[in-house]
Design a protein that fits this description.
The protein has about 425 residues and is an alpha/beta fold. It has two domains: about 10-50 and about 300-424, Alpha-Beta Complex (Aspartate Aminotransferase, domain 1), CATH 3.90.1150; about 55-295, Type I PLP-dependent aspartate aminotransferase-like (Major domain) (Aspartate Aminotransferase, domain 2, 3-Layer(aba) Sandwich). Helix content is about 40%, strand content about 15%. The chain is built from 15 helices and 13 strands. It has helices at about 25-35, 55-65, 80-90, 105-120, 135-140, 160-165, 190-200, 265-275, 285, 290-295, 300-305, 310-320, 350-360, 390-405, 410-424; strands spanning about 40, 100-105, 125-130, 145-150, 170-180, 205-210, 235-240, 255-260, 325-330, 335-340, 365, 365-370, 380-385. The strands form three sheets. The protein has a seven-stranded mixed beta sheet, sandwiched between helices. It has a four-stranded antiparallel beta sheet with strand order 9-10-13-12. Strand 3 (about 125-130), helix 5 and strand 4 form a beta-alpha-beta unit. Helix 4 packs parallel to helix 5 (about 135-140), helix 4 (about 105-120) packs across helix 8 (about 265-275) and helix 12 runs parallel beside helix 14 (about 390-405).
Length: about 425
């Protein structure tokens, strides 16, 4: 019998990872099939935690189902694109028409398409670290090189524009901004964004601004649209229905282009070509866009004191405050917390080993920090979507596990005891 040749994956996948749905998630699914109850905190999926899409959006889809059975324009239906234009205008962004708006199958597809239309082999894209890992993966998949600019916990994960500019080279084509940020929950101040806009204009970089969490804000955080600050280079604003409107499964996102549109005509034509090759994006969900953007913004009820997201975030803050081992830069937006395990208390901590042990022994699934393209190994990300009581239970389990790890090393017991005294 002839030996069968294995089917191997493309070499282009060598530097591509998405551990949020990787080995740990697969192990969690296997455990659930064996009957274990797993608290899955690795993905920001509102539906899984009891959130619903606003009824008006569901009705808009139902009423237009008969208009959804054929292909539509490759950029999307006009009412959806026009609703995005109106939102941008209300936010102080000028010069946008429906022609500069592309509707996609979620922001995820648009990240891939915008980079595919832009990059040549070896081109560099500035990406935050920690990042939402799809950005790094999409740069690599499209022949580019992701150059990570650091966002330090000591500065509440706000990037330093001077550190960013030091990374610009002759090959740099674009800069990615994720604000409010996933995974850290940071919301960038106007001054920081203005400085980034200035350096992008100075170096003629395309600004790719991921604003999918734009209305998920806590306390006194202020969201500043990047497109309102970028004028002399091309700016792409990305958002969608998944998070603000709790409609992940609708798979509807948009990319709105502003700034220096005139010199980007060829690029936008290339993006339209790629959009045409996939014919059009999901049609039924597009009918919900106008209703979503023009209707009552129920997300504000969830993010103010007493609201579900606000109180769940508070449960995370309280859980960290009680811990001998954990530290957290206060998240001001989005649906996540990027929690630090103190290296002065638990040196040589390994986030992946911890995440696996937490899953196997405590039945809690988190995303290890290394999943977000950082050079350190003492962080993990969780979502604040569960009820506060569930999150309080999660942090009790985390503390039990870290206590056990510290107890297994006598050299750490005194350190942990001193840390406990400091938290009281």
């Amino acid at each position: 019998m002839t030996q069968r040749k294995p089917v191997r994956p493309s070499a282009g996948l060598a530097n591509v990872r998405y551990e949020i749905r990787g080995k740990l998630a697969r192990r969690a699914l296997a455990m659930e099939r064996l009957g274990y109850d797993i608290v899955s905190l690795n993905i920001g999926n509102p539906f899984a935690f009891g959130f619903r899409t606003p009824e008006t959006m569901r009705l808009a889809m139902i009423e237009n189902l008969r208009n959804s059975e054929g292909y539509v324009h490759q950029k999307g239906i006009f009412p959806a694109r026009e609703a995005v234009v109106m939102q941008q205008q209300e936010r102080g962004v000028r010069g946008v028409t429906a022609e500069e708006v592309f509707i996609g199958n979620g922001v995820s597809e648009l990240i891939d398409l915008t980079l595919r239309a832009l990059l040549n082999p070896g081109d560099e894209v500035l990406v935050p670290s920690p990042d939402y890992p799809l950005w790094t993966a999409a740069v690599n998949l499209n022949g580019g090189r992701a150059v990570h600019y650091p966002c330090h916990a000591a500065n509440s994960f706000i990037p330093d524009p001077q550190e960013i500019e030091a990374l610009v080279s002759k090959r740099t084509r674009a800069i990615v901004i994720v604000n409010p940020n996933n995974p850290t929950g940071a919301v960038y101040p106007r001054a920081t964004l203005a400085a980034i806009a200035t350096l992008a204009e100075r170096h003629r970089l395309v600004v790719l601004s991921d604003e999918i969490y734009d209305q998920i804000l806590y306390d006194d955080a202020e969201f500043v649209p990047m497109a309102s600050l970028v004028h002399d280079t091309l700016c792409c604003t990305m958002s969608g229905l998944s998070k603000i409107y709790r409609a992940c499964g609708y798979r509807v996102g948009w990319a709105s282009f502003s700034g220096d549109i005139e010199t980007a005509a060829e690029y936008l034509s290339g993006l339209e070509l790629l959009s045409s090759l996939r014919l059009c994006s999901n049609v039924p969900g597009q009918w919900a866009v106008q209703t979503a953007l023009g209707g009552y913004q129920s997300i504000r009820e969830l993010t103010r004191p007493g609201g579900r997201l606000y109180e769940s975030r508070q449960a995370i803050l309280d859980g960290v405050a009680r811990s001998k081992y954990l530290r957290l830069a206060r998240p001001m937006g989005a649906l996540y917390s990027f929690v630090e395990v103190r290296s002065d208390v638990l040196p040589n901590f390994d986030d992946q080993a911890f995440a696996l042990e937490l899953l196997e022994n405590k039945h809690v699934l988190v995303a290890p920090g290394v999943s977000f393209n950082v050079p350190y190994r003492n962080y993990f990300r969780i979502t604040n979507l569960p009820e506060p009581a569930v999150l309080a239970s999660v942090f009790a389990r985390i503390e039990e596990l870290l206590d056990a790890q510290a107890a297994a090393r006598p050299d750490l017991q005194l350190i942990a005891s001193n840390a406990a005294m400091q938290t009281r």
